[in-house]
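Question (not urgent): is this output format expected?
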Amino acid sequence: MSVVIWWIRRDLRLADNSALYAAAQSGNAVIPLYIIDPVLIDSDRYRGPRVAFMLAGLEALAASLPNVGGRLIVRHGRPADVLPNFAREVGAQALHFNRDYSPYATARDTAVTTALQAQGVRVTSYKDLVLHEADEVISKGGKPYNVYTPFRNVWETLPKPAVLPMPSALDTPRDIRSDAIPKPEDHGSAPAAHPIAEAGEAAARERLDTFIAAIIEEYKEERNIPAKDGSSRLSPYLRWGMLSPRTVYDAAAAALERARTPAHRDSVRAWINEVAWREFFYQVLARNPHVATSAFKPLYDTLTWERERSEQLAAWTAGQTGYPIVDAGMRQMHETGWMHNRLRLIVSSFLCKDLLIDYREGERVFMQHLLDGDLASNNGGWQWSAGTGTDSAPYFRIFNPTSQGQRFDPGGEYIRQYVPELRNVPTEYIHEPHRMPDAVQREVGCIIGTDYPAPIVDHAEQRKRALAMYGRVRGED
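Got this back:
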């Protein structure tokens, strides 16, 4: 029987998978191939809990493949070297894969395609990571959108692709050698202490079902309350393709049809807007690969970030800034491999506009620790906070970490969960524990400066410095 290769990358699932579906429909035996790429798995930028989560997802995929007559084949090396040799080894006629949009992925896929076509292998790539690619969401004049709202207005009018069925028979040959799936520690990684998500397609589907059935209709009201389970927590699954964007959009669209009240419909639409934000950041990256290393707006590459702030960067990374809501967010990330979206906004604003540290430092830390660390979304979010991106927060929008905590965690439940030193602090001091009288500090067993740090910077003073820094770049000083 003729064989074709399904090259697995960020699509660790069997259901609703464009490349797998096309490979199975070809009438040939399908070889599921995953390549352990050292450029990615051994990079300091990518190493960490996210690698452990990905490998666990790969294990789950390997366990499910026999149900459809498949068998996972694992090889190590650079794909442009591995794939031509592998295609010759198995006598493959074709390669199928789902497209990715990062600069590295684009260059890698071009090199693989060129090499395989040179030896007569048909190569076909598919849209799967997004509902609509960059060239689909354009203005009437054929230009891309650099502002989210007009992008979304067009995006939401476009017909959405249908969910694809799972193939029933892959007929993978039994005699192909496979390497073992590596352990995280083989690549200097370790799982999060208490991962927010269990890896794999089945766990992803379970979380989606829970979100749609019990959470989405209250999403608009509760998504900003970090102490509540009010957000989807689907981002790790979407990042690694344990769910497809078609599947999640289809589920949300069905929820919108069933919504019982205008408020519930508004909540579902609010979540669909987040799906559109994800797609917006992908089209920004695809059209502007320079954002991976520099500001979307070149003007802001001249910002004079503080260069001698290694101690403050370390304090921010460890959740030891003396600002409880910031520290809770950073510690949630370390403990679970995930951070609530409201906290991502707070901690990123704090790094850029209170500590005046280059947003790329924070972007790197997020990529190392978040299960959903993804270049497009992570970069887009950080450039939004730093005011350097396309549809960015105004440079003068500077979150006050104390008032943000008071607004979104008024009773301090979230803070107490992730900053145990503050567990017994009275609510009146939970957002500013350094204001506790000495007697109260002794009573609750939290001595500021010993058990928990005093604020490492003065927010009011740093706000002035941040406005001056941006003002110099903009010629407003």
